[in-house]
Amino acid sequence: MATLGLIEYKDASPQVRAVYDDIMATRKTDWVNNFWKALAHDPVSLKRTWEDVKQIMGPGALDPLTKELIYVAVSATTQCNYCIAAHTVSAQNKGMTDAMFKELMAVVSMANETNRLAAGYQVEIDEQFKK
Amino acid sequence: MATLGLIEYKDASPQVRAVYDDIMATRKTDWVNNFWKALAHDPVSLKRTWEDVKQIMGPGALDPLTKELIYVAVSATTQCNYCIAAHTVSAQNKGMTDAMFKELMAVVSMANETNRLAAGYQVEIDEQFKK
Amino acid sequence: MATLGLIEYKDASPQVRAVYDDIMATRKTDWVNNFWKALAHDPVSLKRTWEDVKQIMGPGALDPLTKELIYVAVSATTQCNYCIAAHTVSAQNKGMTDAMFKELMAVVSMANETNRLAAGYQVEIDEQFKK
Amino acid sequence: MATLGLIEYKDASPQVRAVYDDIMATRKTDWVNNFWKALAHDPVSLKRTWEDVKQIMGPGALDPLTKELIYVAVSATTQCNYCIAAHTVSAQNKGMTDAMFKELMAVVSMANETNRLAAGYQVEIDEQFKK
Amino acid sequence: MATLGLIEYKDASPQVRAVYDDIMATRKTDWVNNFWKALAHDPVSLKRTWEDVKQIMGPGALDPLTKELIYVAVSATTQCNYCIAAHTVSAQNKGMTDAMFKELMAVVSMANETNRLAAGYQVEIDEQFKK
Amino acid sequence: MATLGLIEYKDASPQVRAVYDDIMATRKTDWVNNFWKALAHDPVSLKRTWEDVKQIMGPGALDPLTKELIYVAVSATTQCNYCIAAHTVSAQNKGMTDAMFKELMAVVSMANETNRLAAGYQVEIDEQFKK
Prior knowledge:
Chain A is an all-alpha fold. Chain A has 6 helices and no strands. The interface between C and D is large, with 65 and 65 residues.
């Protein structure tokens, strides 16, 4: 179903395998998901995207789990079914409990609600909120 | 500019003031922002929305700061200017440092990027991601 | 601020004036708003868009006011500030009372909330909802 | 497929059954759809969301059918497949004829079109539209 | 699965067949896709939509392939699965190579990323960008 | 107004100036826009984002102008006002004529329209469109 198909590890070029190996090593898994296997048709984009994700999603001022929760929040907001499925599991692997998940969804849905109230009521930005 | 205007505390009915008071008490502030003052024209919605926010945004499996980060993430994704302005300050008040903010934005933007790659490449959901 | 500027009636070609006249006659107004004046730089698109709007927004199985409420609902959902401003006034001109407006916004925001809950919880479509 | 699964009536706690009973009584049906069965894993959110929907979607300045049309309009705009399926049937149950449905879709799609024209042409808001 | 079903050529009225014939003649194909067959339940909208598409998508200052690439870009951004599937094939029929497709997706995803950075950082529009 | 403010060249660290210099050299300009000056508070993201843009937006199977048109298409779809302003000028600098701009906007708005028709009518993907 993927537009250009999926490239399995056994069929991948050394260039692509290098990225696959790094993904599995970094994520401590023994498989690569369909997103990377679809993007692998564009090895330059595959590498660039993976390098970006690796740089952004690691521990920092925010911990990896928090970052994964944010990823799920965005995916639910944009209605990306693949992303919701993949990042929900990712978040669970990083420590998201069902209790956290439920609170996450409550916040995400509430935010999408008040976003449209603010827009629909044409609320002007308070001076206190301007830099 | 707000569609129905803003209702200031001094002009508010007891019903609306009751909500304003609760907002200020809960948030430990001495003022109410334009979002609530615009919504106050619909006192039933004002109360319902505030009660929902109060229930959802308090401490739980996720702490209030994490919830506020998620709120900013959604607001940036939907491009709600009022919400970005208001919730950025909210998050700062709850402890978001500039370092956290920058990482938050990196994750939000990255997620919006890979969301469209997944969609555009028509990536099928891996079996491992299905329940 | 408009990308190509605005074409005022006095500066408009006969082709554009014909559309302006039809807009004013149909809407029973004596002025044309900025949306049409901006689009007028593309007279073919101006005419096509106006003809579409005229065909779609008139009375039918749904009355013009209901159609205008739907237009506001979409505009708030997409966060189009121009559209929210313009269509709110349009709806008021067609009979939208403040009470209607408030209920409209309550529904729009609620729908945006449950939309993300359905997505985030990955809810499968019930058989009863399939054709 | 639902992230936490679905809670059937027979397996539900008294707290959840109370909400299920109210949904069925209010909607005059003998079954509960997957959205509620998925959300039931978070009984607090289930109750809050249902109470909100019940308060918002009943008759008022706008009738229930009009409110349901608005719900479909938002769902089509955000591309929420579950919501489109569910609320289309909901609207039909409340009296939406095929003729109404077709006009609804014509308005929703037209609004999404002109929303992007207004944005892309960077149209400034007319003074007549500002409060 | 389509809300009102699909109208096949053999079951179509003369009014609808006229549009089907024009679609096939213009696109040099011997079949009509599900989008048109679903919309055919509203012959007026079918005709209007097809006439709009025909007027907009033909050669002009932009060639048909470029226009189709833009269509895919929008569809990926809004996450419209049907549209991505249909317009990807359309673009391929008009000359989009795999290399072009990959670059298209890289741009679309990058744009969705920087869009949210601009929003989240609340970047003010430079004077040099104002008309 | 930018959340963390803007970093002007004269106040920039050598690390940031290096990126500013590369932007100006690559784009053949003598100034840096607000987007980069806002993002400069996160020098790592500044560099990563610029490197990504430079890699993606250069000539390839698609020429730079086509890529810029796609960028405008996405920005109009997401309603990012900053991005529309900036990339419209960018596209004009790369050769977008007014005629091209008008056709671009016609396609973008049409695509956003049919996207919602496909979703609202719940159109199933044709077999001919599946890989």
